[in-house]
Structure formats: structure tokens, C-alpha cells
From TrEMBL:
This is Zinc-dependent metalloprotease. InterPro entries: Zinicin_2, Zinicin_2_N. Keywords: Hydrolase, Metalloprotease, Protease. It holds the Pfam family Zincin_2. It comes from Actinotalea lenta. It comes from the Bacteria. GO terms for molecular function: metallopeptidase activity.
Length: 466
């Protein structure tokens, strides 16, 4: 005697999928479908077996349960627009993919000594004091752990939009509209899938960067919440191997750059918040290329988040064509160039009396920052943003000109307020910046005097009337 079918009219694969996805609510949904059937938007009954075939569901209920269970395991952790658990795990795995030994005592002493010497040399090159934070030597995994919070902050402005749009596209392409209310019930899972995919991409980008970065300021954006300096001894060694320069000299030069960045971001109190605000303003306006997104996910398996992340590696962001986006991008590129140019100039001033290969190392770093690398390309694909100071040479010339005309104090005085920062026009003509600044200050002084006279007359008139 055969066992009666507990779900008459419903293919076993469907029943298995519903129970796996909906949990305790599944029996009620299954009973409703068994009694009344499932109707599409046009009111016509839906053949569930045909629909399952169109969705690519296996016929075996056990296979369906395994498929959905695997997807749920991926989606179970993490909340918000970025699945931070997936980001963390993949970033750590990628960082250690080629081996990631702990920093030895010898390496740590070499880093601490280099950064100590760098601070002494910088004291002679800039009026900005040492940052005063901890000095650290990190493995790649340690760099990931310490910088992930900032990476999440940088990525979140676009992550929510990408996750929501990705969930919509996957739902439309892989869940036929005949599914009606059932598709709506699965919407939270689709949003979690978008969060997971973005988390995987961010983890891949950060993990890849950890194999290339030399310290905490390579990209021009501060990755630590407070003052401090750090170098990655293994990456520094690998970087030095490709140069015809003694490793100790390379380490000292990189320590100078790291310490100069730290001084700038620590003692120019408004700079870090201002820079992150410009990045945020740009990122929030990034447009999603819906056509590219739909093309990327058309042939993927919606139960494979890693496959979706790989499919999106070609980029899903439209070019910034709006005036607001173009203005935000110009502000960002100019500010990054000013930061990099200042560090480039000050580092050169501090190093030239001590390091014979200063000019060669300076040129190497300029080209490295201008060209970027594979990891920066991943980040550009991920959030539609290139963190490359393309005009750092012009900015370095501007800072050098200011120092020649008025000394280090005049150069550093430009950082007193964001309104004093040079513009893209100033980078076009670095030698004319000071004259334009003085002319603007004279105009402001004339306006202040005129306003004072107007208000002074008003005050005198009111006193005369009384």
C-alpha cells in the first residue's frame, strides 16, 4: 500500500523548496496552493512542474533542499547593505592565499627604527609635528583587520543601491512573474543575496589590496580612525626587490611617506572629515548601469553568490555625467592630488640630504600612485571610484613654489582652512596661486570694509533718530 502524497497537486521539489525557505509558514502556503492552485497575473492556472523546470530547479526534493540550504548558509550571517561577515572571511582568505607569516621581532624592530628616523628627518622639513600615535609592523591579515571598518564606510554609500537593484534584477530574471505573491515572500532573501554579493566583492578587493599596500595611506585616504603609523614588512621587502636600491633605503623612504601622511591627517583637524565627505558625496551619486547589471546576471545561477560576484567584476556603474557628479569628482581628484603632492614634496625635502636614491624612489612612487594597480581597479569596479591622484606632480610643484616663496610656514598655512585650498585652476598654474590668493584676500578685505561702512552708517542713523 502506497503512502498518500502529503502535497497533492504540488511537485515534491516545490514542496521541499517552500519548506526550506519559509520554515513554519510553509505548510499554510502549501495547503493554499494545493487547494486553490497557483494563478498568474492573467488569472490562468500555473503548471508548477513546468515553472520549476524554467527556474532550473532539480526534480529531486533532496537536491532542492541541499541547494536552498547552501544558499541560506551563505545568507544567514551579516545584515545591512554589506554582508560584513563574508567581507571579513574572504578578505582574510585572500590576504593569506600566498602565505602570510607573522611579523618577526627583527622585522618589527626595523620598521620601528625606520619610522623613528623618519620622524626626526621630517622635523626639519615641516612645521607639522609627529602624529604621536602607535608605531606598528603588520602582516597582511593584520592590515585587513585594522582597515576593514574604513573600507565598509567607503563602500556603504553605493552598497545599498547595488544590493537592492541586484535583488530586483535577479528576481525578475530568475523568478518568473507567474510566481506572484511567492516572489514577494522571497524578496528579503533576494536582498540578502545582494548584500552577500557586495560583501564578497569588497572582501576580494580588500584582500587583494593587502598583498600590495606598503602602509596605511597608500591610496591617499586615511584607513585608521586615529593617529598612528604602520608598514607591512613583507610587502616592503617585495617592493624593494624590484628596485636597484638598498632595502634599508627603500624602507626609510616609505617610512617618510607614511609618517608625513600621518602628520597631515592628524594635525590638519578638518582634513580627514572633509576628504571622507567628498568621497561620500561622490559615491552617493554614482549611477548604476541597469543594462550592464542585467547582462551580468542573465546567465548566472542565483544560488551561487560567488558566481554572481565574479559576473559583476566588469563593473555595473554608469559614467558620472551629471554636473553635480562631475563637480564632486573634480573636487575629489584635486584634493587627492594636493594630499599626495604635499607628501611627495615634504618627503623629498626630508630625504634628499640622507638618501642617495631619493629622486629615483620619488619617481617610482609617483608612477605607482598615478597608475594604480589591480587591486585599485577592483575597488574602482566595486564603488565606481578611482583613488588616483592624477595631478600630483602639479600639486608637488605648487607646494614647492609656496615653500620657496614663504618657507615651510607659508606652505603649511594653506592647510589652515578648506577655503584656502588650491583649486584645479591653481594646479594648471602653480606659480600663480599665491598672487591669486592675495588678490582674493584683498577683494574680501574691500568687501568687509564696505559692509562695515554700511552697517556703521546704519548704526549712526539709528542713534541720531533716537
Amino acid at each position: 500500500m502506497s503512502t498518500p502524497d502529503p502535497t497533492p497537486g504540488i511537485p515534491p521539489a516545490w514542496a521541499a523548496m517552500l519548506r526550506q525557505m519559509l520554515g513554519p509558514q510553509a505548510d499554510e502556503v502549501i495547503a493554499e496552493i494545493a487547494e486553490h492552485g497557483l494563478q498568474g497575473p492573467d488569472g490562468e492556472p500555473i503548471d508548477l512542474a513546468e515553472l520549476a523546470s524554467r527556474m532550473g530547479l532539480p526534480e529531486d526534493p533532496a537536491a532542492v533542499q541541499a541547494m536552498v540550504s547552501q544558499m541560506q548558509q551563505v545568507l544567514a550571517s551579516g545584515t545591512g547593505p554589506i554582508n560584513t561577515d563574508l567581507t571579513h572571511d574572504l578578505a582574510r582568505q585572500t590576504a593569506a592565499a600566498e602565505g602570510d607569516p607573522s611579523v618577526t621581532d627583527t622585522e618589527r624592530r626595523a620598521v620601528v627604527d625606520a619610522l623613528g628616523v623618519a620622524e626626526l628627518w621630517l622635523d626639519q622639513a615641516t612645521d607639522l609635528p609627529a602624529c604621536g600615535g602607535p608605531v606598528r609592523a603588520w602582516s597582511r591579515s593584520e592590515w585587513v583587520e585594522q582597515t576593514l571598518p574604513r573600507w565598509r564606510t567607503l563602500a556603504e554609500p553605493v552598497a545599498g543601491s547595488v544590493s537592492a537593484e541586484l535583488a530586483r534584477v535577479i528576481g525578475e530574471q530568475h523568478m518568473p512573474e507567474e510566481m506572484g505573491d511567492l516572489a514577494g515572500a522571497m524578496a528579503p532573501m533576494m536582498r540578502q543575496l545582494g548584500s552577500a554579493v557586495f560583501g564578497l566583492q569588497l572582501g576580494q578587493a580588500v584582500g587583494t589590496l593587502s598583498r600590495e599596500v606598503l602602509g596605511t595611506t597608500d591610496i591617499g585616504v586615511p584607513l585608521l580612525p586615529g593617529p598612528g603609523t604602520a608598514l607591512l614588512p613583507r610587502n616592503v621587502t617585495e617592493f624593494a626587490e624590484g628596485l636597484d636600491v638598498p632595502p634599508d633605503e627603500v624602507r626609510l623612504f616609505l617610512a617618510l611617506r607614511e609618517a608625513a601622511h600621518a602628520r597631515l591627517f592628524t594635525h590638519v583637524g578638518w582634513l580627514q572629515g572633509h576628504l571622507l565627505g567628498v568621497v561620500d558625496a561622490y559615491a552617493r551619486g554614482v549611477a548604476i548601469d541597469v543594462d550592464a547589471l542585467e547582462d551580468a546576471v542573465r546567465s548566472i545561477d542565483p544560488t551561487d553568490p560567488q558566481g554572481i560576484a565574479d559576473a559583476l567584476s566588469g563593473g555595473v556603474f554608469a559614467m558620472a555625467t551629471s554636473p553635480a557628479q562631475q563637480a564632486a569628482l573634480l573636487r575629489l581628484e584635486t584634493l587627492l592630488a594636493l594630499i599626495e603632492g604635499w607628501v611627495d614634496h615634504v618627503t623629498s625635502v626630508a630625504a634628499e640630504a640622507h638618501l642617495p636614491h631619493t629622486a629615483a624612489l620619488r619617481e617610482t612612487m609617483r608612477r605607482r600612485r598615478a597608475a594604480g594597480g589591480p587591486a585599485e581597479d577592483i575597488f574602482a569596479t566595486l564603488v565606481g571610484l578611482e583613488l588616483r591622484p592624477r595631478r600630483s606632480r602639479d600639486a608637488a610643484t605648487l607646494w614647492a613654489t609656496l615653500a620657496e616663496e614663504g618657507g615651510a610656514a607659508a606652505r603649511e598655512a594653506v592647510w589652515d582652512h578648506p577655503d584656502l585650498l588650491p583649486t584645479a585652476e591653481d594646479l594648471d598654474d602653480p606659480t600663480g596661486y599665491r598672487a591669486r590668493r592675495e588678490a582674493a584676500e584683498a577683494d574680501n578685505a574691500d568687501l568687509d570694509r564696505a559692509l562695515a561702512e554700511i552697517f556703521g552708517q546704519d548704526d549712526e542713523g539709528k542713534r541720531g533718530e533716537s
